[in-house]
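Appendix B. One record, verbatim.
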Amino acid sequence: MGMPIRLLPETLVNRIAAGEVVERPAAAVKELVENAIDAGATRIDVVARDGGKSLIAVTDDGCGMTADELVLAVERHATSKLPGDDLLDIRSLGFRGEALPSIGAVSCLTITSRARGADSAWSLTVDAGAKGSPQPAALAQGTRIEVRDLFAAVPARLKFLKASRTEYDHIADCLERLAMAHPGVAFTLSDGGRGGLRLSAAQGDLLDARLTRLGALMGRDFQENAVPVTAAREGVTLAGWIGLPTLHRPTAKHQHLFVNGRPVRDKLMVGAVRAAYADFLPRDRHPMLALFLDIDPQEVDVNVHPAKAEVRFRDQGLVRGLIVGSLKHALAEAGHRASTTVGLATLGALRPEQSGETDSGFTPSPLPYGRSGGGSGNSWGGSYTPATVPRGLAERSAAFQAPTQTGLPPLQGRLSGFGNGFAPSARPPEYRAHKPEPPPDSHPLGAARAQVHTTYIVAQTREGIVIVDQHAAHERLVYERMKAALLEGGVKRQALLIPELIELDEPSANRLLARSAELAELGLVIEGFGHGCVMVREVPALLGQSDVKNLIRDLAEELSELGDALSLKERLEEVCATMACHGSVRAGRTLSVDEMNALLRQMEATPHSGQCNHGRPTYVELKLADIERLFGRR
C-alpha cells in the first residue's frame, strides 16, 4: 500500500533548499559576500572559525536594512534583486531570495543591520529555522551577519565536510574570486587568529585596478607578464588580463572567468580559452588569466546550476568567437613579448610532395618546434605527428649499458653537473661543429656532431641523422631514474648549501607541508617557515641544479588538483614528472661533445626515451634516403 502524499513542513523545505544553495561553508560565505557587494559595500570583513563550521561572520559597510526589511530578508523567495518579475532580468549577484532562510534553516543565524541614515540598528535571529523578532541593537553602519554552528541541525551534512583547514581553503578561494571581480572593494579574511587575506581597495581606472588586485592574488609574476584584453561585439564586452604563454601552469586553477561579475566555471568559456592558446601551449599546460564578460542579462541564463557556476548563453558562437578572437589578437599585439614562445620550425616545409611511408620506413614529420618541457618557460604549439621511433631501439641496445668512461656513472651522472665545456670558437655560437669521435655506426643514436641553437643535438647514424631535443630527452632520463631509485628503496637526497625560502599562498603551503613525509621519500625535504612560507632543505640528488622555486610552486598546484584522496605514491608518475622537468638540462645550455654523447648513450639504455614526460618526441630520425630524395638525388 502506498504512502499518502503530504506537504512537507516549512523547516524541512528550507533544509532541502539549503542543500541546494549551501553545500559547504564556502557556499554560505559566497551568498553573504555577494549580498554585501549588492548592498554597495566598500569594505567587507569575513571571519571563518573551524573552516566556517563554528562561526562565519560577514561585516559590511553597505546600505543596511530596516527592521521590516530584516523580517522579509529571512523569508523564502524574498529578494531585493528582481526589479520586476522577470527571472531572466537578473542584474545583481545573489538573487533567489533563498540564501538567508536556507542558511538560517541549518544554523543559528543572527543579522544585525543599520539602514543608511537611520539612528539605530536592529537585530534578528533565526535558529535552526525558528524565526525571532527584530530587537534593537548597536552597529555603526551596514550589516553584520553571524552564522554559528552551521549544519548542527543536519548532522548527516556535517559528516561530509572536510577538515577545517580544507574548508577554510575553499572559503579563501571563493573570496579571492569575488575580490577579483570587485577591485574597488576592500576585503579581509581571517580564521579568528592572525594572518589571512588582506586586500585594500585598488585605485585607478577599472583595467588598472583589476591588474593591481590580480597581482595581489595571483602574484607579481602575473602582474609583470600579463597583457590587457578589451573587446566588444554586438553588445557583449570582454575585458581582463591574460598571461603570456610563457607563464604557464600545470593546472587550469589560475583561469578565472566571470560573467556579469559572477565567477563561473563554464565549459564554453574554458574551451574558448584553450582554443586561443592552442598554438602556444602543450595540452597539459594552462595559461594564467582573469576574464570578465559582460552581457545583457536577457542573453544569458544564470539559473542552470544551483551554485550558478555554469551559465547558458543564447548566442554561444558569438561568445566563443569574441573570446578566441580577442585573446589571439591580444597575444599577437604583445609582439616580441609573446614571441619568446618560439616560431614554427617544421620539417613539413621539407616534406616531399607524395605522402605515405618512404621505402626507408620513415614518414617525414614536423620537427618538434619550441623548446620542450613543461616548466621551462618555453612553449610548444600546434599539432604534430610524432616521428616514427625506430623500431626496437631498446632491443637494439639491450646489450648495451651506459659506459662510465664518459665520466657519467649510469645512475648518478647528471648532465647538469657539467660546466660549459666549450672553448669559444670562431664560428657563431648558434652552430658548433665537432670532430668526429666514435664511429657513428656503433650506436643506434649515432655520434654527436653538433649542437644547434643550444637546444638540439645533431648526431650522425649509419643510415642518416638524428636530431635530439636535449631538454625533452634529459627530462625522460631523470624521470625513469627517479622511478628506478624509488623501487630500489628511496631517492638519494642532496642538502642545499643555503636552504631555499619560497613564499606561497597559505593554502598551498599547508597542502605541501601536510605531505612533507611523503615528499621526503621522494627526496624533497621541506618545512614550514611562518605564514605561507616553505623552506626547502634537501632536494633529490638526481635533480642537480634545479629551479627549486618553480618546482615547489608546480607541486603545490598539482596537490590542490589531486586532493586528499590519493597518496603521492599512487600519483607517483605525475609528481616524478614534475620533478624531472625541473631537474633536467634546459634548452639553452651549451653542452660539450662528451656530454652530448653521454646523453645519447643514456637514451639508448633507458626505456621510453623516445618521448618526454609530456608525450612529445625527444628526437627525430631522418634517413639518408629521405634526405637524398629532398635534394632530388633519387
